[in-house]
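P.,

For your records, the input lines for the assembly:
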Amino acid sequence: MTAVTEAPPGTLTAPPRVARRRRRMTSSATVAGAVVGVIVLVAVVGPFVVGDPNAGDPAQRLLAAGTHGHLLGTDGQGRDVFARLVDGTRLSLLAGLVPVLFAAIVGTGLGVTAGLSGRWAHRSIMRTLDVFYAFPAVLLAIAIAAALGSGISNSIIALAVILVPPVARVAETETRRLVDLDYMEAARASGASRGAIALRQVLPNVAPPVVVYCTALIGLSIVYAAGLSFLGLGVSPPTAEWGLMVSDHTQYIYTAPFLAAVPALAILVASVAFNVLGDGLRDLLDVRGEARA
Amino acid sequence: MSTSTLSQAEDDITRGVAPLEVTDLTTTFVPKGRRIEVVRGVSFTLRRGETLMLLGESGSGKSVTARSIMQLYGSAAELGGSVRMNGQELLGLPESRLRGVRGGQIALIPQDPTGALDPLRRIGAQLTEVLAVHGVERVRRAARRRAEELLAMVGIPDPKRVADSYPHELSGGMRQRAVIAIAVACDPQVLIADEPTTALDVTVQAQILELLSELRERLGTAMLMVTHDVGVAGDFGGRIGVMYAGRLVEEGPAGEVLTNPRHPYTRGLLDSLPGPDIPRGTLRSIEGSPPGVGAFPAGCAFAPRCPVARPSCHSEDPPLIGVGRDRAAACPVVNPVRPSPGKAA
Amino acid sequence: MLGYVGRRLLMAIPILLGVSVVIFVTIKIIPGDPIASLLGPTGSPEARAALTERLGLDRPLPVQYASWLGHTLVGDFGTSIARRSAVAPMVFDALKNTLILTLAAAVLAMILGVGVGTLTALRRTGPLARIGNGFALFSISVPQYSVGLLLIIYLAAGAGLFPVSGMYNPSLGGGFVDLFNHLILPAVTAALVPAGIIARMFRSSVLDVMSMDFIEALTARGLSRRRVMAHAFHNTVPSLLTVAGLQIGYLLGGVIFVEAVFAWPGIGLLVYQSISQRDLPVIQAGVLVSAFAFVMLNLIVDALHGLVDPRIRTSH
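Structure tokens returned:
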């Protein structure tokens, strides 16, 4: 038996962890991860590889897919669809990742603070969040995006704002669950400051469910961002962006339906990939499913 | 056939057929093509009004034995051997017949009372449902009255209020009493109690045990109690069956088994208990740990840890050997088999 | 039970007040000069000053808020800048239409979601399960506007099975059948994502309940398999209601995409159009009424939840 040393106040032993069997990701989750990787790669490297997404030649409009030099054909203004798709990946990915990243940081901060605080602070934070929860999310995003004007950055801001409450709620629920556990008592008894408790005990345990939840939110954010552009509230033409392309190609729905389907499929694939990845992460990290907002 | 079973058979003839007779029960779980043996041939007989305590550590197979008797595992497990109730074989009965047996003739009192009640229905409703399903009382008002009587019988001071309550509105002790009320509602011949006190506070434990003892007296029910607590086993009386690694290793009246164990495992178990006469700092434990389920060694499962094991113990399955009247132990080392004159082995 | 509902109602009031504040502030942030858009570029300074005073835009913000709130509470939502008519009837009419669509979509989503969820819970493996799970995954990831467009192309314009857009066919003079006809495609489109979410949640909820101890205890009491399943499903209803509540928000908000694609005259479309027209009173009223409807719907779901699950009543 090892001798028990006196731990200085403020340093905490690791919380008791049930021995976790090393879980493997399901094959579908690995595939999803690969797809996500491809998407990221395309977003970063793609624009340098393909041609100018805005180079339109009216004489070459509405060419079918596979025509020489145009892998996916051309759109109504003669622009190469493939190039636009690749170029738009960057924007869509940004619109998916940035709001979620912001919401993850701010939301976790708010949620953990609320979870660890006394009654008054907890109440005020959660009630404020409730006000935002009272809005149908999409409507609020539209209102904010409209208020701020067009442009991808405003879309990102709007999405970031509406994604904070759900993340905060998940973080708060998980924090409350932990707070009830005995080792939190031990931590408090050993004299650790609340900040230390937050950092060393709460965050590592709250992180997995939040990460899983946020991964699914990325897919949602991509869809919403494209939706905002679809409504004309996000990016403005002639920028290449998936949602804008969907809206743009709609007019050719009878003459060239494939055209309208392409950007929609891109959105779908990205969304599915992130969702499946989120599921895989949940299995890997052994997290109980949380209700999606 | 061991001499123990023979003397029991003699008694059966004098007292009539036993309410519960388990012979060579085996339970093998079959998840996804694998086979995991958990109960490896358990035999005992419960006569009217008798109590048998199945004592053992976790993993010994005692809970599985109890549940296998009621066939609660469905297709998840394969059962072998025989379980007879009043002479009638239960294994292999179709579901429609089993339904009547469960709750009607054999009732279960599970370990955690919270888990045994439907959280969305009131206690009274759960009682009247059981009464109706088994045809005891289908008329609403009469069933309701019977429900309140049952609740009073298990020592609940305000039966009317409790009948109108939901499970989460009651304390742990009250919930366990309600569960017991449901179990005895249809006057079963056999009560199976699976660690009925483990989930309760210490003070409540004693009350529940007393209640069970009272009921056993009053209703003449035979009781099979599963427990890992030697103290409970000793207090409750009746017979004790010690289980280890899926088998019964010792059986006999509680007082005798606990004061004069005839199996090395039982002895080791009792020796490891703290008591007033043990000098400080010398708690003894049995070396090693029990074999994991499904990974039983050949021969006597206890042999690897046994202080008196012989080489043959590691290869030969020890039979349950009679040690005087109504006692048995599965250890040829401690109980050398003496051929008895005139009795067929 | 009444106490529980009463408490939820009381809690809703400060939330709605907070909502009104947020809306008011958001509107004020919108760039653009409402005076200029009303008068046009030719307005004289006197006219501008007069109009400013008439609209109360020179008063301090909290006073403006109080005035706006006061009017709103009595049902005076102001006058639409673009249409020059009272906002209130416009908004309530649009809300009615949106509720019709939302309710239809909700019913569809529940049926589909519970069906697929149960299927994939009871059949863990096999082709049926894979289809079910695949559908659920697809549903939650799909961009609704695309599906809407696809449905229009193939089923409406292409096959002529359903009308292409709108809520009624004016030449047919309204009527329930006509409404139903127009309702199908948009309702299906709107129901897809919630159906997928409900399917997944219900599946995990069924699996949870099935593995609970009391299922075994019920069998041990001698209840038939059918009875035990009935008890089990009864126990999945609470979490189903929770998901349903969450989905309502999603539906009410997401419906705007469907309304845009199908030209369904609902409140989403109204707000959207008003945004491009800078019609502030309509935007304000529209978002406020949406939030109000959302809170009320949630209240109803909460009440149902309390009715089904007695544990909720005591903990809140």
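Two observations worth noting. The mean pLDDT of chain C is 79. Chain C touches chain B through 23 residues (CB under 8 Å).

Regards
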